[in-house]
Amino acid sequence: MTIPRMELTAATIAVRLGKVLTQELDCDIHGTYYWTDSMTVLRYLANESCRFQTFVANRIAIIRDASCLQQWKYVNTKFNPADCATRGQSVKRFLQCSMWFEGPGFLSQPETEWPQQDAEITKLPDNDVEVKKTVLMTAETPISPVDRLLEHYSDWTRLKRAVAWILVVMKHLQERVAASKKFIQEPAKQEFEPLEPNALHRSQKLESEQSRVKQTLSLGARESLNHTRLTTENLEAAERVLVYHVQQKHWKDEIKLLNKTEGKPSSAVKKSSSLRKLDPKLVDGLLRVGGRIGRADLDFESKHQVLMPRDSPVSRLILQHIHKSVGHLGKNSILAELRRHYWIIGAPSIIKGIVSRCVTCRRYQAPAEQQKMASLPRERLALNEPPFSKVGMDYFGPFEVKRGRSMVKRYGVIFTCLTSRAVHLELAHSLDTDSCINAIRRFSARRGSVKSILSDNGTNLVGAEREMREQMRTWNQQKIHDNLLQKGISWQFNPPAGSHFGGIWERLIRSVRKILYSLMREQNVHLSDEALQTLLCEVEAIMNGRPLTECPNSPNDLDVLTPNHLLLQRSGESLPPGLFDKHDKYPVKQWRQVQYFADLFWNRWSKEYLPMLQERQKWTHPKRNVTVGDIVLVVDSSPRNSWALGRVLEVVKDKNGFVRSVKLKTKTSTLVRPVTKLCLLVEGSVE
């Protein structure tokens, strides 16, 4: 708090006190005057042109609201009663002070006898710190030739070559100028001879010879430059020029201090400098790391790296060059290579940004896109719907069965109710269109009318054999649609490669298929068609008897809810199974063989499947939506380096605004893919 500010605060208190006294005193007041011995306060109040700092401006506003300028008077310090209290004196002398109790003597005189205020008192000094100063300055920073080059080059090698060529041309020009001066100066050194009749002719001949030599020098220099090839020394000189320019631009003060206190680098660098901990030193005009490993058995460049700032374009170009030279490896590999020659301040954070924006790295390392798991569709939440009104369908297999002396392949078809999670299994003899239609007709005849069927696209059966994928491509979907249309059934396909869209049946297939495969391979026994059909029915009964809720902890609780409660109106107990052992796996009595496999299936299903339903493992938070114009990699089963590049043309959003699938254009075709089969490379503009 400065003295003028405290005096202005006192003036503010005075006007507030005057306002209170005017309101509280029961007498006629003809006028109120305020006296101050501060000319600064009077100047502030009289000012009409300058703008003050916030503190002063606020208090001047308060004073002007409660008083006018004519009410303020100047009093000399020796006549100011306030000084009697603020300046130390004894109590006896204070009690005898008439000025404190009665005021200055001129107050008892007519107003015309009061001290007069000097007219110059209202002028503010030019250097008053409380006056806001507005200075408009325009400065044009000269751009050096090196900075101009940095604006046009985005590659470290190309930048060094450009600077190297400039240095080579400069050297040629200097040599050419030096040679020309030498030739011109040589005739002047010759002694003058007496004039002869043919002297003029010889002078003209000399001038002609000089002109011819100049042309020869110019042509020779041009031919020499055309045949010049850059050498390692040229590139090293260019690199040195670039580094020197950057260091002089960013650490000019540090370099000056180090030049003044050579041999004492630590004491020369300020504590606030970013180089303090690196113990910098000057070597041949360049700043290098002093460090603590000077005695290590390493080359000079590795012990005393060249220092570079973090915010220089040259530093970024160097790191980008090293990132490419080490095969697009990660941060640690880049740092190890960098510190063989350079020490860039804040290099780890710069490297992180370079790697994250590198299109090549994203092409080979970027994960597939994800999005928050969607809410359950209406089909999963419908009430009072008959079972199997809306189902999901998929194929699984194949299974080898014995027919006579040969082995043939059979396939399983799973139908799962989207509401009750009930399961129906059918046996398909092949993967052709007619076999698919027959399986659907058998299912519809046994389970009642079906309103809609959801399934994967025919080309992307997850985990299916190659033969299954090839056969599904030959399906006549129009023929299937026509047959289903006769029964009022609609068929909806998920996006290609979008297996997670059908997770409700894929998860059930995994349980059925895994255990069936393991059982058949472990037992090394081949079933017949009839035995496989029976085994599928047993598996179906077990799946429909699985608990949908937590198992009760008390015998007094109700039975656990299962799909059989809806299908059979009971929990679905089967016939007494009897006692079976591993000898029953041999096909002496096929019904006992099937029952043995069913028992094994149930044991493994209850031990391996149920614990998997405990937690939700992924897709719990919203992610960035894929947008039109994004450049993406299309994930497929081929090696990653052969994945196709595509540009997003359209996006499909769900009711919550999340993009689930997109339409994209590749080099050869237009595809529809879920976002989980895309790897983002370059973000496009948001439309």
TrEMBL record:
Residues 383-571 form the Integrase catalytic domain. It comes from the Eukaryota. SUPFAM superfamilies: Ribonuclease H-like. One of its GO terms (molecular function) is nucleic acid binding. GO terms for biological process: DNA integration. Pfam families: DUF5641, Integrase_H2C2, Peptidase_A17. This is Integrase catalytic domain-containing protein. It comes from Patiria miniata.
